[in-house]
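cache lookup: miss for this entity combination. No prior model stored, computing from scratch. Input as submitted by user K.M.:
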Amino acid sequence: MSRAVIIGAGMTPVGEHWKLSLRDIAVEALLNAMDDAGIDGVDSLYVGNMVSGSFVEQENLGALIADWAGLGNIPAVKIEAACASGGAAVQEGVKAVLSGLEDVVAVVGVEKMTDAWPSDATRYLAYAADADWELFHGASFVALNALIMRYYMKTYGYTEEDLALFSVNAHANGAKNPYAMFKRPIKVETVLRSPYIADPLKLFDASPVCDGAAAVIITTPEKAKELGVPKEKWVEVAGMGRAIDTINLANREDLLTLKAAKVAAEKAYRMAGVTAKEVDFFEVHDAFTVMAALSLEALGVAKKGEGAKLAKEGQIAVDSDYPIQTMGGLKARGHPVGATGVYQTVETVLQLRGEAPNQVPDAEIGLTQNIGGTGSNITVNVFRRV
Amino acid sequence: MGKPMQVSRHWRHFQEKYRLIGGKCENGHLMFPKREVCPVCGSRSVEDYEFSGKGKVISWTIVRNPPSGFEYYKPYPLALVQLEEGPVVLAQLTDVDPEEIDFGMEVEVVTRKVREFDEDGIILYSYKFRPVR
């Protein structure tokens, strides 16, 4: 089998882009990625997006974005896996290249959330849950994660203060990322003083509603050479995995195990031929602080119940053993839901090229983990420096 | 989001929402709601099973920023309740002081209003759970 390499990466800053529409930011990120690779066309486009039909009354994003980016009559489709849409779109792009059917593929992740009224945004995000058995009862997405958070704290004896450390780490890293929504460090007290959205989950345990788009260009090493893309730009997609779990949280075998992440990670590690120990940094899905803890456990970085302990022991900072959220994560960089998996990918590319603002020294292998639903659809991708 | 959508969409779940009827597969696995395929053993032979409505709180939260359509009811407690027969159900708690909710609190099912739509819309009812007094 051939290999897939990323030869171009681009993004827009994450934030509240009042002046820009969904198509504006998607096209900007896509053109940035194409410019980075030095190409002016692609064979196909995959769009990661969760819920544009509700947020901005626009579906058929493949046609919209390829048309407005001037890509001609190429095939272009939207890939949807709730908040994991971006990670899934990257995987579909890689599969297209590995299949040999498409040589040069573009993937763009985009979400435009701030055009919606806040309570409507809360409703649209809950579409990732079970409509008949969760949203029906007034469950917001935050509320479902709050149920997990309270149970996690009770089961393992953690406090709200312990989990706040994930937000503090994310903000410390986001402060140095020019593309991050929140470019300022915070303290544990900042998190603890923020209002409850769904007890015990507070505003600063949660990632923000925001707009953003990120894009990558994927091809084979042979084609990359032919296109004349310098090797320093290449980053190999070494392994990937994806799995689902029950869509309804109440039906989960164990509320505190991200089984889908476990299965996906095992696949990705096997394909890449690496173990968790060999990974230099982890871009995990910290949409809520408790999800960062559960993710570290599912990825095999921490033992079950010890994800939050890694944060307490100071092992998640950029200069420590298990750096996570090196560019701010979902909490500080921002979480434009369908774009997040592609942001994680772009950030991983920058780290592996040695171009990141918070550079992990000598980073060779990076991992992205992107969660859809309350853990019901999860992608794990492993990248390697070429 | 004021419109009730199709009445049929909610009517088709009246067994589950009004009577807490779930399923039991041929191998005795219980589930709520009922499915075509047993999530434990894969059996496609699943029949109706009515739960007693008694259970315990596993985890809970207070919804302070609800999805649109639920603003009028905020704040409201939402919980995962483990039924005495085993399956776990997500539902609102009612007739309860948020301060008294605790892990393992014993609760029982009641039928209550979940939300109203516009003047000309339908009213949705469902199971909720209240503390056993």
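stored under new cache key. Strands of chain B lie at 21-25, 30-31, 46-50, 54-63, 76-83, 88-92, 106-116, 123-131.
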